[in-house]
Design a protein that fits this description.
With about 60 residues, this protein is of the alpha+beta class. It has one domain (about 1-64): Macrophage Migration Inhibitory Factor (2-Layer Sandwich), CATH 3.30.429.10. Helices cover about 30% and strands about 20% of the residues. It has a two-stranded parallel sheet. The radius of gyration is 15 Å and the shape is elongated. The two termini are about 20 Å apart. The mean pLDDT is about 90.
């Protein structure tokens, strides 16, 4: 599962998902046909980060 900030492009999420699957196949000798990556997208205000001293922000303009 990946909890991420809302607004990531499909291509970016697809690359991340495939890399995670490839890593699990390599490290644990798993069959990729039985794996999936599920994304849960959140707005910035639903993600609190101590290093930001508060909530994240939403994407702006070309930040996606």
């Amino acid at each position: 599962m990946c909890d991420i900030r809302q607004g990531r492009p499909d291509e970016t999420r697809a690359q991340l998902a495939q890399r995670r699957i490839d890593l699990c196949v390599e490290m644990f000798d798993l069959d990729q046909l039985w794996m999936k990556v599920e994304f849960t997208q959140h707005t910035g205000s639903e993600m609190y980060h101590p290093h930001l001293n508060g909530f994240n922000t939403d994407w702006k303009g070309d930040e996606r």
